Amino acid sequence: MAFAMTESMLPPLLDDIDEPPPLEDATDAPAASVPDNMAMRTPSPPRADALLSMIRSFTVDDDYFERRALRRTCIQNHPVDDFHPQYSEIIPGLFVADMYTATSSAVIRSLGITHVVSVLKNDCPQYPNDLQHICVPIEDRRSAGLLNHFDFVTDWIQQALQQGGQVMVHCVWGMSRSASVVIAVLMSLRRMSLDEAYRHIVSRRKIVRPNSGFMCQLKVYEQLLRAREARLKRPRMQRASAPMKVEGLQWR
């Protein structure tokens, strides 16, 4: 289904969104790339109190330091040298975590994870071939086009949950990119409003803080979902003839 977006009608923070590359399906990686004993490339723990963390998380927007303070709140009881894996179950079977936790084989086994979504621009981790894994190549920048991936990822996660799977969604800190994806899932699958979805995920994971550009895109996605739902409620003849519009989005 193709759609056109007119520049004059775009929200202020969406007018410079980068066109994202296609999703990378990590399940297509050669079998030899991951040992059978579930060894993974495990990164160092996320560092919340060093300048390097800005580079590691690709976070360069003006709210970086405010979000860094939230990350420090999360790890304040654990020194960086003794970082404990931290994950949050948002709804049954759906988890959000940082990259350090999401690449822990012990965590993967203990939670029975069957599907993983990595929301990372670079260095997507490798997983054993018996895990379903996709990579969403997005930076943690306000201009990154995460909106264009919401439908595919929410459908993929819905199918995994319907099959009884356990899904882990992660980025670097489990704070912005992965949280934004899960908020989209809550709006799509649980029919929550953006405000309801945001409050719910924060109640489960207090450090969640999508960057301002992602919040703007989530607002557009909320409007899109409402328009689709309204369209489905129309009589069939009206649905066939009327174009769908969502504040600047229009397609047939």
Structure description:
This protein has 252 residues and is α/β, with parallel strands linked by helices. The strands form 2 sheets. The protein has a 6-stranded mixed beta sheet. It has a 3-stranded antiparallel beta sheet with strand order 1-9-8, covered by helices on one side. The chain has a domain at 84-230: Alpha-Beta Complex (Protein-Tyrosine Phosphatase, Chain A). The termini are close together. It is 37% helix and 13% strand. It has helices at 52-56, 64-75, 99-102, 105-111, 150-162, 177-189, 194-204, 212-233, 236-241; strands at residues 4-5, 24-25, 87-91, 94-97, 115-119, 132-136, 167-170, 244-246, 249-251. The model is unreliable at 1-22, 25-39, 41-45 and 47-61 (pLDDT under 50). GO terms for molecular function: protein tyrosine phosphatase activity. Residues 86-227 form the Tyrosine-protein phosphatase domain. Belongs to the protein-tyrosine phosphatase family. Non-receptor class dual specificity subfamily. Residues 1-43 are annotated as: Disordered.
List keywords for this structure.
single chain, 252 residues, alpha/beta, Protein-Tyrosine Phosphatase, Chain A, 6-stranded mixed beta sheet, 3-stranded antiparallel beta sheet, 9 helices, 13% strand, disordered N terminus
Question: What's this, in brief?
Answer:
The protein is an alpha/beta fold and 252 residues long.
Chart the SSEs and their pairings.
Elements: E1 4-5, E2 24-25, H1 52-56, H2 64-75, E3 87-91, E4 94-97, H3 99-102, H4 105-111, E5 115-119, E6 132-136, H5 150-162, E7 167-170, H6 177-189, H7 194-204, H8 212-233, H9 236-241, E8 244-246, E9 249-251
Parallel strand pairs: 4-7, 5-6, 5-7
Antiparallel strand pairs: 1-9, 2-6, 3-4, 8-9
Helix pairs in contact: 5-6, 6-7, 6-8
